[in-house]
Amino acid sequence: MIRARPALLLACILGFAGARALSAQSAGGPADVSGPLSLSVSAGAPAQGDPLLVTVAASAPVDNLVLMWRGSGWPLREVAPGRYEGLIGVDLLAPPGPATLAAEGWGRGGRHRVEAVVTVVARRFPVQELSLPRKMAEFDAPTLSRIRQEEGVLQERFARATVPVRWRVPFLPPVEEFRPENFGSRRVINGEERSPHAAVDVRLPEGTPVRSIAPGTVVLAREQFFGGRSVVVDHGGGVFSVYYHLRDFTVQEGRPVERGEPIGAVGATGRATGPHLHFGVRLPGGRVDPALLFALPAR
User: Which of 29, 31, 38, 85 is nearest to 57 (CA)?
Assistant: First the structure.
């Protein structure tokens, strides 16, 4: 693995934090200009793998308000009377070009909807070539069956959009020394191209404490073939954090956790070549770069 340079990380953070906010009006106009809804987004031209903070304002009572993104509806949280927040993600494999985001709800006069268009920009990801022992790269039928079963469990967890929405900005990095590497790397293992790395690696000594980045509920705490001892926390509203290769974990499935609460320790379990934390974030819409999550503007 190649250690990420702090200057590069800082450039990514500053680039995201400084992005121009996008309103529905500047993106082609709201769908219902006479209605009570308005919408703004933290960036109008996000890159693949970017998280986006969305604010919806309602000038009149609106029920069943949801954020529509990539064909699904996602709950928002009310942060003040008539003001709501949501998080969405531009998946690291999302096609470049325009994409429509909308907020919908019911109020006086029926259904109300407001739209904004964001323009997804292609991002260049590194190529990472790895040489692994054959037993770590080629699998027999029982192992493949286990891998598929574990992936099915994960996808079932990620498909949930639970309420209440418990995340808050700012998020807390999962470890004290957060030096992320390798997000989106196109991995070539023993000469064969594999799926992109949809998380970051943080190389730290075994036993380094790992903590939850926000309040939530543990929805997975078990041993996996690839991830080793693994924890997934549901923060509500379709927002999840993922922690793999732990030496051990100190939480159980179904248990609530608070922001900064210890959940385990860095290890090298599963398919790992040395001690590190594999840390990922899933948002409505896909897999995002966790380093950018911590640069979201506080409201």
Answer: 38
Whole domain around residue 85: which residue ranges? 6-120
On whether residue 172 sits in a domain, the answer given is: yes
- The string of DSSP codes covering 190-219 is TTEE-----SEEE---TT-EEE-SSSEEEE
Does residue 298 lie in a domain region?
no
CA-to-CA distance for 279 and 241, rounded, in angstroms? Answer: 7
pLDDT along the chain (299 residues), means of 10: 30 32 40 72 95 96 95 94 96 97 93 96 88 77 95 93 94 97 87 87 98 98 97 97 98 98 98 95 96 86
In DSSP terms, 56 is beta-bridged to 39, 84
Give domain status of residue 299, yes or no. Answer: no
* CA–CA gap between residue 246 and residue 263 (Å, rounded): 9
Handedness of CA 191, 243, 268, 176 (dihedral sign): positive
Rounded Cα–Cα distance for residues 62 and 77 (Å)? 13
The whole-angstrom separation of Cα 145 and Cα 157 is: 19
pLDDT of residue 187: 79
Query: Of 120, 148, 170, which closes a domain?
Result: 120
